[in-house]
Amino acid sequence: MWYLDELEMNEFLQFKQLLQQETVQCGLQPIPWAQVKKAKRQDLASLMTQRYGEQPAWDLALCIFPKIHRKDLCDKASRESAPMGLFTLVLHGCPQGPGLLARDSFTEIPGCFDQTLTREEHESLEEYFTPRVPRRPHTVVLRALQRVGKTRFLMKLMLAWSDGTLYRDKFSFIFYLCCRELKQLRVTSLAGLISRERPDDSVPLADIVAQPERILFIVDSLEELECTLTEPESELCRDWREERSGKMVLSSLLRRKILPESALLLAAMPMRPEALESKLDHPNMQELKCFQDSHVKQYFCCSFGDRGRAMAAFSWVQNNEHLFTMCHIPLLCWMVCTSLKQEMERGRDLAATCCRSTSVFLSFMFQAFTPKGATRPSQQGQGLLKALCSLAAEGMWTDTWVFGEEELRRNGIGDTDTPTLLDLRLFRKYSESGSSYSFIHACMQEFCAAMFYLLDSPQDHPSRAVRPIEALLLTYFRKDRASWVFLGCFLFGLLHESEQQRLDALLGMQRSRELAPQLLGCLRSLVEMEDPEEQVEFLLLFYALFEVQSDAFASHLMSSLREAHFPLRERPDLAVAAYCLKYCCILPTTPSPNVAFGGKPTQAIGSWKWPMGHFWRRGDHSRHSRGAAGDGWIRIIQSHLCFCRTRKVSFSCETGIFFEVFTSNPNLQHLSMTSTQLSHDEVWFLCSVLSNPVCNLQELL
């Protein structure tokens, strides 16, 4: 009955009025008008189904649609009722399965954040499978940053296909395979993957695989399975019924050893496609775009209702590089709006309560668990929050993102608690048929896991998989787990003084003050070890320092730093680098640290980071280098480098924008420009810098 969501408000009102007439004409007992009048779309659908049964309610709706000039909905229903033998959609490991396709959105703002493809998305998807190489099967690789909403985008694709508006002339069968689920399967076959969770088994598998050119396999989160596509051919499957590990079956499919004529749509993080492109057969490389700036602005206006307050909030976020980048991820945009709106309604200063990513998540959590009119959660609410954080920690260490009843009970979440977590919009149902749940977003699970370490000792956790905080830091900063994107940043962000105060109010007690020295000691051990670059991703370390925003914390850590390489690939990286570099200026008279900047703008390393290829090259170089550009973190980094005691600086990027610092800081003696691509004007400018008597460069590579 989600067809009611397709109606405009005036059409929905007409539908209600005609419903009363149609029920009488059909000899059915009308629903009391008072209930119909106040019912929302979903409520009305439930009322009709409960009163008349599913099929009679559906028949009533089909009678009314033409009378309100929406015969198109009847046509759509006719298409969707086509025999499953002709069009089959199988979702293996898909969040909520078909339930996700029911267009149930957290936002409750129709047309602004729904699950219908936009015109631009529809046009780009049509191009995905346009023939590029004659008589070659289609392979499309969709590059998407972590947590940007690629699974939801794929669901929108499948919804459009099931509506008959996309790919119906190309594919009769779509099979969705989630690599996060596939890696759990020790032994399976392509036949098993196809037949598992099929909504209708009326079509024999042999008939399906007999027309492979009509099959589309959608493979989500390819990086989870770590497919290198380098396995010896002798180990690959040659038959779709042959059993192997989930990873080997998928590799056989991707390398065209089974059903080679089928089409493939592979969704992967940006660092994966470069490795895949050379191993796939003529892949069509595509990129999934985030929310555009205009979309973020539109969503703020829709969310707040009051345009004045919406624009005030939008302007404030736009001036906060990290939060604005966060808003380019649809669901996180909803969360930011929700937090800001409630803080503004309470008359609070956004700069004090929602200035960083950690503070936004904590604000959202505080508002969720604090009853209206109260200043802190109830004792029962505190207990549920602690259980939720315990569950999140177990999930991070066991690489679990979907939780069943056993995991919930083990961490103290009972059957009566799950409806509460769903109502609070912290949980979502993973499948309509089973009792499995996930956090609303992977970032929310990471945040709750970070909170766990401030609430309880890992030694007391019911799961032995949960390890001490030292192991967490080492795992995070070495990037041993690709799925740990913000866990370390959240942990350090919760050490901020303002967050400690809110945690005290939220939980009555927590361990952040006693943990701070322990965390600092762990970090110093990391940067002081031999060959720290082999052990630590310095940009992650600097993001953690940026979140905690403690001068004492940062200066203590930077005093241990001797050399660091951190790629400035995205615009927010500049803010982080600028913040951390200033602490190089106050280092004691010890051997000077070496700093290296690098990374191509197209190589994204995180999810809340906005691609900045255009940012590096905006305007001509002379404007930036001569001081006329003014804007942004580039100028701040330049100013910090001018006073930094570092001696060695390495650039590996697509600009010479930082060269002028060598005429301001005589400490800079070594410059490496490996892989730097300079224009003729930039080379000329470098020569002028080198000839400047203030420049003290002794080595140029």
Automatic annotation (TrEMBL):
SMART domains: PYRIN (SM01289). Residues 138-270 form the NACHT domain. It comes from the Eukaryota. GO terms for biological process: regulation of inflammatory response. One of its GO terms (molecular function) is ATP binding. InterPro entries: DAPIN (IPR004020), DEATH-like_dom_sf (IPR011029), NACHT_NTPase (IPR007111), NLRP_HD2 (IPR041267), NLRP_innate_immun_reg (IPR050637), NOD1/2_WH (IPR041075), P-loop_NTPase (IPR027417). Keywords: ATP-binding, Leucine-rich repeat, Nucleotide-binding, Repeat. Residues 1-83 form the Pyrin domain. PANTHER family: NACHT, LRR AND PYD DOMAINS-CONTAINING PROTEIN 12, NACHT, LRR AND PYD DOMAINS-CONTAINING PROTEIN 4. This is Uncharacterized protein. It comes from Spermophilus dauricus (Daurian ground squirrel).
